[in-house]
Structures are given as structure tokens and as C-alpha cells.
Design brief:
The chain is mainly alpha-helical. It folds into 2 domains: 222 residues; 41 residues, no CATH class. Helices cover 68% and strands 3% of the residues. A hairpin with an 8-residue loop joins strand 2 and strand 3. This is ABC-2 type transporter transmembrane domain-containing protein.
């Protein structure tokens, strides 16, 4: 609880009330990235608890046949749900409002709807984190082995989710990782919910300044480019020192920038490693 709350508050006040200029949008985007780094720490906290419960089950319930291994795995996933939900609530209020992300929805008049959507994405993120932790440790005896695999996969997921580098800039193999990583789609959904359909107000040092050619004014010179690529001019009429904004709304900015699967894979991994298998000879004897 302290991990999710304190880190979310820390991120929220580092990027406190980020504006909607280019630097502000980058700050809002990186606040989402920083929030996603909780993923790794939560996974490392869940793994040892699962190993303890599994050891007890293997030594007692499984030998007495109180319930099957499938029930054990699913119960471990279900019991994490209330805690995941509570953590999602704390993270939402500790991060969403200090950063001022709700202000992006004021232009569209959908502050409540977009706030609920962001919360649901955070809840999915926490549920995904819990199921991922069980997945990576289900096939290992030692928690350290599962932790190492979790570290590797979480690092790849975070670094290749599209925030640090756009997919177009990645080599072919890493594009594959980018597309199969669920973190990519969680981040995509959060960015769309937080930043979409909002106008951009440029800071004075973010305008592109130039002189138009062919004895034309700023609008005549830039009209074709604006129609094709977007952006806007601070003033259409001057014949020198034109001030141009390449991006006019956050949708243009966004263009530059698996829970069920985890549960099924956790069951398969546990079955492969922990459930005794009958040999071919034993099967013939039974017949």
C-alpha cells in the first residue's frame, strides 16, 4: 500500500499541474511512464507470498486432496483482486489530480467519463501486474528465479511500450516485442484517455519562427502544409517573423508518440512443473 501511494504522490507532485504546451505534454506522458515503473516492484512483492502459499499447498492440501491445483492457482489470483482494486483507487487519486490530467477533459465536457476510464485502465494495470507475478513464478521452485524472469520481462515491456522510443524507430525484432507486449496497449489506452481531444497552447520558446518567401504573408505560405500536416499560425497576416505551431491539438501529438492470457499461462506453467504426470508404462498398467 505504501509503495503504490507514496510513489504515486511523488510522481503527481513532481509533474504538478503540468500545462498543455509541448513540454507539459511530455511531462504528462512521462508521468504515466513513471507510474508504470511500479509494475516491477509490485511483481517482486507478490512472488515471495505466492511461493509461501504454494509450499503450504504442496505439503498439506495437495497430499490430502482437499482441493486441486487449479483451484489453488485461481484462488491466488482472485484473492489479489481486492488489493489490486484498492491500490488502483489510491494510485488514481494520488497521481491523476496532482498532475492535473482532469483539466484535459474540460474542453470536451467529459471530465467524469474520462476520469472513470483512466481509473479502469489503472485497475486493469494492477490486475495485470498480479497475474503476471503468478505467471513468472509458477514454473520455478525458487522465488529468485521467478524474480529474475519478471525483471527481464518487465524491463522489456516498459522500455518498448512506445514512450521512450516510437515503434518506427525500433529495429525489426524489437517491433515484434513492442506489438506483443500488453504494456504497449495499456499505455496507449492511458495516453488516449488522458491526452486526447485537447488543444495545445504553445510557450513562447516553442514557436517556429521564419520569414515567408515569394512576397506572401504567413498564411499563404503555410496553407498547403497546414492543410496536409496540421498546425496553426499565431498570426496569419505578417509578411515576416511568422510564428508557427507544428501541432494544434493533442491528437496529433499522440500520433508521434493481456490478463486472461496471464491466467491461462499460469495454469499451464504450474501444471508443467508441479503436477505429477503419468508415464506411458503406468498408463498401460492402469488399463
Amino acid at each position: 500500500m505504501a509503495l503504490c501511494t507514496i510513489i504515486s504522490l511523488f510522481i503527481g507532485f513532481i509533474f504538478f499541474r503540468a500545462p498543455t504546451n509541448i513540454q507539459g505534454l511530455q511531462s504528462q506522458m512521462f508521468s504515466i511512464f513513471c507510474l508504470m515503473t511500479i509494475f516491477r516492484q509490485v511483481v517482486q512483492q507478490v512472488i515471495p507470498q505466492f511461493v509461501i502459499q504454494r509450499t503450504i499447498y504442496e505439503a498439506r492440501e495437495r497430499l490430502l486432496k482437499v482441493y486441486t491445483w487449479k483451484v489453488f492457482i485461481l484462488s491466488q489470483i482472485v484473492v489479489e483482486m481486492p488489493w489490486n482494486s484498492l491500490m488502483a483507487v489510491l494510485m488514481f487519486f494520488s497521481w491523476y489530480y496532482p498532475v492535473g490530467l482532469y483539466r484535459n477533459a474540460e474542453e470536451t465536457g467529459k471530465v467524469t467519463e474520462r476520469g472513470v476510464l483512466v481509473f479502469l485502465f489503472l485497475w486493469l494495470f494492477m490486475v495485470y501486474t498480479g497475474t503476471f507475478a503468478i505467471l513468472v513464478v509458477s514454473g520455478f521452485d525458487l522465488p529468485e528465479a521467478g524474480g529474475n524472469l519478471g525483471d527481464l520481462m518487465s524491463t522489456l515491456s516498459l522500455k518498448l511500450c512506445g514512450i521512450l522510443s516510437a515503434s518506427e524507430a525500433l529495429p525489426r525484432f524489437w517491433i515484434f516485442i513492442y506489438r506483443v507486449s500488453p504494456m504497449t496497449y495499456l499505455v496507449d489506452g492511458l495516453l488516449s484517455s488522458v491526452l486526447a481531444n485537447t488543444g495545445i497552447t504553445y510557450a513562447d520558446n516553442e514557436f517556429l519562427t521564419f520569414d515567408p518567401a515569394f512576397n506572401s504573408n504567413c498564411f499563404e505560405y503555410m496553407k498547403i502544409h497546414i492543410d496536409k500536416h496540421g498546425g496553426y499560425l499565431l498570426d496569419d497576416n505578417p509578411t515576416s517573423n511568422c510564428q508557427f505551431c507544428p501541432i494544434s491539438e493533442t491528437n496529433q501529438y499522440l500520433k508521434t508518440v493481456y490478463i486472461i492470457c496471464n491466467i491461462g499461462a499460469s495454469l499451464l506453467s504450474y501444471w508443467l512443473y508441479w503436477v505429477p504426470k503419468k508415464s506411458a508404462g503406468e498408463g498401460k498398467k492402469d488399463k
